[in-house]
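pls design
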């Protein structure tokens, strides 16, 4: 029943022997019971092509800069408590449903005000820079946070490759929106495809990465396989998943969340404990995985703790207005 999809495996991203051993271990431990109970308990009739993706080690990864020394959130929490509305709006939906996405072959289309307006395959993208581990604090606008050991490379490398023209001031990112692979896009909870945007200088900041993995392994489907944005000083929703295009523009792009509710979700979306969401405070957060009796809320930090690195990007801006 558990079949890894061989077409998914790019030669550039795995160490074959390790991947094989990893898969065997996965097959032995997961077994059929888990799959069956996950499907039955939720009353979900899973399509025949929904298969949990085999976990595969990524090829050698260098330790990147900017790691937080906070304890990473357990893998089980990082991969089962997700927002990915293309697979349902419940936190547990993506880990149950995202197996229908076909992440190979995958190409990203680079468009707009760039010299290299081209489609680039994921394999070629991975040749632009060595993969780094970046252990980042992440915070969702809903008031929870995690610490995630991402694997990825600086977005700046892709921007250098694309060579934006003098007109380019922003980058718009667009997710896949295929109803055959993503049941949630049949439901009009957002204006599909999911889109996001960054100012070009934000996008070039060395903290901003394109992630292809976490915990030293390929990105689970529910976390945005095969390629997602990670911008640790902004609320989680800026971290757009399963990216199929990047469009360089002169005008500020309008994200799906801005379109859905511009009063609640602005373009910048910087983590800012002093600017409340219209319906709740942003002063504190609950760290996922720190369950139990002693789970106290912690104070949310300006720019999610990355103020020293990114504060300069917003010097002179009124962050209450540009939220
Ligand atoms: N395409 C797409 N990207 C998305 C979302 C989504 O619904 N669709 N949700 C966002 C939100 S609200 C958060 S908090 C993060 C969560 O990422 P994680 O589930 O991998 O932790 O993904 C973001 N990226
Ligand atoms: Mo979020």
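designed seq:
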């Amino acid at each position: 029943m558990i079949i890894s999809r061989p077409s998914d495996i790019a030669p550039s991203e795995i160490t074959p022997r390790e991947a094989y051993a990893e898969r065997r271990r996965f097959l032995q431990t997961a077994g059929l019971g888990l799959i069956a109970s996950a499907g039955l308990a939720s009353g979900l009739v899973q399509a025949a092509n929904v298969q949990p993706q085999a976990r595969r080690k990524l090829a050698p990864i260098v330790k990147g800069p900017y790691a937080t020394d906070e304890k990473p959130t357990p893998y089980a929490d990082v991969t089962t408590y997700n927002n990915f509305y293309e697979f349902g709006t419940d936190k547990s939906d993506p880990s149950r449903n995202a197996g229908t996405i076909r992440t190979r072959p995958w190409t990203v289309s680079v468009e707009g005000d760039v010299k290299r307006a081209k489609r680039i395959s994921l394999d070629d993208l991975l040749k632009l820079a060595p993969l780094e581990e970046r252990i980042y604090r992440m915070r969702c606008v809903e008031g929870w946070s995690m610490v995630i050991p991402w694997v990825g490379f600086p977005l700046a490398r892709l921007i250098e490759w694309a060579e934006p023209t003098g007109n380019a001031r922003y980058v718009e990112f667009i997710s896949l929106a295929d109803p055959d692979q993503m049941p949630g896009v049949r439901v009009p909870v957002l204006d599909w495809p999911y889109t996001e945007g960054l100012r070009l200088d934000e996008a070039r900041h060395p903290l901003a990465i394109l992630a292809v993995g976490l915990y030293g392994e390929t990105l689970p489907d529910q976390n945005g396989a095969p390629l997602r944005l990670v911008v640790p000083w902004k609320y989680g929703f800026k971290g757009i998943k399963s990216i199929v295009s990047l469009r360089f523009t002169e005008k500020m792009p309008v994200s799906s969340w801005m379109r859905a509710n511009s009063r609640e979700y602005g373009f910048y979306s910087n983590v800012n404990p002093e600017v409340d969401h219209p319906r709740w405070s942003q002063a504190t957060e609950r760290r996922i995985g720190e369950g139990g009796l002693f789970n106290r809320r912690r104070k949310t930090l300006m720019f999610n703790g990355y103020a020293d690195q990114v504060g300069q990007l917003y010097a002179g801006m009124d962050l209450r207005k540009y939220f």
